[in-house]
C-alpha cells in the first residue's frame, strides 16, 4: 500500500462569497474538504496546506497580510501540519512542497481545493510528472466562470473539463463519499 498525503490547495477567504474572487460551489467544496481532512487526520496521514499569497501588496487578490489570504477556519491547519506559502499558481514552484512530501515518504497525493482549472490543475499535473500517484476529489474542488474571446464558460463546465483531463491522463478522479468509504 502506498503512503498517501493530502494536499489542501488554497482554501482561503478570498474565494468565499465575501472575498474578492468568489467561486461557484466553494461552500460545498470546503465542507467536503473538511470531511477529508478529518478522515486523513484520524488515519494519521500527513496533511499539507497550500496558501497562495502574492509577493507584493499591489496584487488585486491574495494580498499579503489581508483577510483574503487566511485559510478558511473549517479547513485550517492544526499544530504540526505544514503550511506551504506559494507565490505562483503551481504549488511546487519555488516552494518546499516536494521536499515536505518526500520527508513524509508520500508516494500518492490526494488533492482538494481551488481553483479547479488553475492551481488544482497545476499541482495535479506537476505531481503526476514527478511520479506521484494522484487522486483528485472532484466535489472537494471549486472554480468560477471563465471568459475567453467573448465566450463565457460556466464554472460547472470549466470544472468538468479540468476533471476530465485529470481522469484521462493524470490520475484518479472520484467523489469525497467514494474516497471516504
Shape: globular
Question: Compute the gyration radius: what is it?
Answer: 15 Å
Instruction: Give, in order, the helices and strands.
Output: EHEEHEHEEEHEH
- Total beta strand runs: 8
Helix content: 25-40%
CATH homology superfamily name: Isochorismatase-like
Number of separate domains: 1
**Distinct helical segment count:** 5
Describe the sheet with the most strands.
6 strands, parallel
pLDDT < 50 runs, ≥5 residues? none
Mean pLDDT: 97
Mind telling me which CATH architecture this is? Answer: 3-Layer(aba) Sandwich
| Major β-sheet strand ordering | 3-2-1-4-5-8
CATH class label: Alpha Beta
- What is the fold-level CATH name, i.e. the topology? Rossmann fold
* Amino-to-carboxy terminus distance: 17 Å
Structural class: alpha/beta
Chart the SSEs and their pairings.
Elements: E1 4-9, H1 26-43, E2 47-52, E3 83-86, H2 97-103, E4 108-114, H3 116-129, E5 133-142, E6 146-148, E7 151-153, H4 155-169, E8 172-174, H5 176-180
Parallel strand pairs: 1-2, 1-4, 2-3, 4-5, 5-8
Antiparallel strand pairs: 6-7
Helix pairs in contact: 3-4
Describe the structure.
Helices cover 33% and strands 23% of the residues. It is of the alpha/beta class and 181 residues long. 39% of the residues are buried. The strands form two sheets. A six-stranded parallel β-sheet has the order 3-2-1-4-5-8. Helix 3 runs parallel beside helix 4. The chain has a single domain (4-180), classed as 3-Layer(aba) Sandwich (Rossmann fold). The mean pLDDT is 97. It has five helices and eight strands. The longest helix is centred in the N-terminal third of the chain and has 18 residues, at 26-43. It has helices at 26-43, 97-103, 116-129, 155-169, 176-180, and strands at 4-9, 47-52, 83-86, 108-114, 133-142, 146-148, 151-153, 172-174. This is Nicotinamidase-related amidase. It comes from Methylophilus rhizosphaerae. Residues 5-176 form the Isochorismatase-like domain. Keywords: Hydrolase. InterPro entries: Isochorismatase-like_dom (IPR000868), Isochorismatase-like_hydrls (IPR050272), Isochorismatase-like_sf (IPR036380).
Amino acid at each position: 500500500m502506498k503512503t498517501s498525503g493530502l494536499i489542501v490547495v488554497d482554501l482561503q477567504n478570498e474565494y468565499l462569497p465575501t472575498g474578492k474572487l468568489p467561486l461557484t460551489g466553494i461552500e460545498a467544496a470546503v465542507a467536503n474538504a473538511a470531511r477529508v481532512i478529518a478522515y486523513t487526520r484520524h488515519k494519521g496521514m500527513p496533511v499539507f496546506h497550500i496558501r497562495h499569497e502574492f509577493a507584493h501588496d499591489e496584487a488585486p487578490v491574495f494580498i499579503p497580510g489581508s483577510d483574503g489570504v487566511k485559510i478558511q477556519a473549517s479547513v485550517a491547519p492544526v499544530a504540526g501540519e505544514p503550511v506551504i506559502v506559494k507565490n505562483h499558481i503551481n504549488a511546487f514552484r519555488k516552494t518546499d512542497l516536494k521536499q515536505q512530501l518526500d520527508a513524509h515518504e508520500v508516494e500518492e497525493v490526494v488533492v482538494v481545493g481551488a481553483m479547479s482549472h488553475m492551481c488544482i490543475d497545476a499541482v495535479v499535473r506537476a505531481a503526476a510528472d514527478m511520479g506521484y500517484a494522484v487522486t483528485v476529489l472532484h466535489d472537494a474542488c471549486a472554480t468560477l466562470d471563465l471568459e475567453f474571446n467573448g465566450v463565457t464558460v460556466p464554472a460547472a463546465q470549466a470544472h468538468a473539463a479540468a476533471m476530465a483531463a485529470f481522469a484521462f491522463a493524470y490520475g484518479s478522479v472520484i467523489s469525497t463519499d467514494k474516497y471516504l468509504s
